[in-house]
Write a structure and sequence with these properties.
Zincin-like, four-stranded mixed beta sheet, 8 strands, binds zinc ion
Length: 213
Amino acid sequence: MQRECPYKGPMTKMLNLERETAPFRISVTRRRTSRMSMRIAKDGEVRVSVPYGTPDDEVKDFVCSHREWIEKARAKTAEGEQTRQAFFAQLPLKTRQDWDTARQRLDSIVLPMLEHHAREMGVEPAGVYYRATISRWGCCHPARRVICLSPYLLLLPEWCIEHVVVHELVHLLVPNHGPRFHALMDHYFPSWREARAETKKICRSPRGRVDAS
Ligand SMILES: [Zn+2]
């Protein structure tokens, strides 16, 4: 007796094509969708999304008929990743001394900003710590009133750093990115949109996304 699989969510598996045809990894996700589509992941993997029940042969045809697009898109992604890596490599954080230097520089730039804006906003962060994240510039734990900042902020101009500091402090008042959050950003750091655009421009890459969150 056949039993139906109880799992109804998307299912992903790798698709095997001859290496000459497709010298890259292909993953196929069968999901609730009406058409086939694909995108390139940061590591160059081709991620195909297809409706449930699509046979492997159809997926293979789909991939093969888009070879040219895939090659161009993968090249662009790789280039973007290189730009991104090169950007972050400007601040070495390998040794203890690297970290000590970075921490000193951060303290001298960030702490006065924190103090100034916290006073202005009437908030009291319990602490700030640094973590070398490349996917985000900072984060905030409103419940603990702790702010976390990426040392890679040192690669940005001061007004862009300040925008991240204010962003995280505003999270002590509003945990989400709703209208009230933006109203407070407008009030406490009116040029936040320009700072955000400038920050994105500085480490621009087609795939890379670095956000203050
Ligand atoms: Zn945020």
